[in-house]
Specification:
Layout lengths: L5 E2 L8 E4 L6 E2 L1 H15 L14 H8 L5 H17 L5 E2 L3 H11 L2 E5 L4 H11 L7 E2 L12 H9 L7 E5 L2 H10 L3 E5 L5 H5 L4 E3 L7 H4 L5
Parallel strand pairs: 2-5, 2-7, 5-6, 7-8, 8-9
Antiparallel strand pairs: 1-9, 3-4
Protein name: Phosphatase
GO molecular function: sugar-phosphatase activity
Organism: Knoellia aerolata DSM 18566
Length: about 220
């Protein structure tokens, strides 16, 4: 176990854990960068405009960077990035401690879910490529009307676990996800390094760790009958 890099551990334990996926449990950054670079070249978008989009849905990103384009072109762009990303899973791997964290929670009967900004097909492709087991509860961008940074993904994740958001710990690596968790009323916000600097994460998270491998899961969680 490692010490927090910023913030303090909540003075309580949680009945459920809601994990982000990319950058938290799996490393897909190389595939993400290749896919969006290819997409930006095809649609004439300056890749610099994509900065800060990590953690948001592809639909949200496209709405921002193609705000001046027609609805039809935005729809074609959305379909195309989905196609490119599902086809490119090279280098997608499980991050250190992710398997162990999920196994520990499962073994102890702690409810947990993955809540991702990926659409359903992309989430399935990256889970398969990484070898990370698909959890019983998986919330994707395809399952909600409005994704992160809005509250709906984490509200839905908690509900599918049979819990209120206040009973859950949200685990994230991006500002958009932390904002989503806070808006959902999550009981705690834990961030891990990967895609966002610690000082940026610390502005929104209760506590920041280097990775999920550094977290004392038995200390922070408890099973619910």
């Amino acid at each position: 176990m490692g010490a927090p890099l910023a913030g303090r551990l909540p003075e309580r334990s949680f009945a459920g854990v809601l994990f982000d996926m990319d950058g938290t449990l799996i490393d897909s950054m190389s595939a993400v960068e290749r896919s969006w670079l290819r997409w930006s070249e095809e649609f004439g978008i300056d890749p610099v405009a994509l900065a800060g989009s990590h953690g948001r849905t592809s639909a949200n990103t496209i709405a921002v960077v193609m705000a001046g384009r027609s609805e039809g072109e935005r729809l074609r762009a959305h379909s195309r990035i989905a196609e490119i990303e599902v086809a490119d899973t090279e280098g997608v791997v499980v991050l250190p401690g992710a398997l162990e964290a999920l196994e520990s929670l499962t073994r102890r009967g702690v409810r947990h879910a993955i809540v991702t900004s990926c659409e359903r097909d992309l989430a399935a492709a990256r889970l398969a490529a990484s070898g990370l087991p698909r959890p019983e509860v998986l919330v994707t961008a395809s399952d909600v009307g409005h994704g992160k940074p809005g509250p709906e993904p984490y509200v839905r994740g908690a509900a599918l676990l049979g819990l209120s958001p206040g009973d859950c710990l949200v685990v994230e690596d991006a500002t958009a996800g932390l904002v989503s968790g806070r808006a959902a009323g999550a009981g705690g916000l834990l961030a891990v390094l990967g895609t966002t600097p610690v000082e940026v994460l610390a502005a929104d998270a209760d506590v920041v760790f280097g990775s999920v491998a550094d977290v004392d899961w038995p200390r922070l969680t408890h099973p619910t009958p």
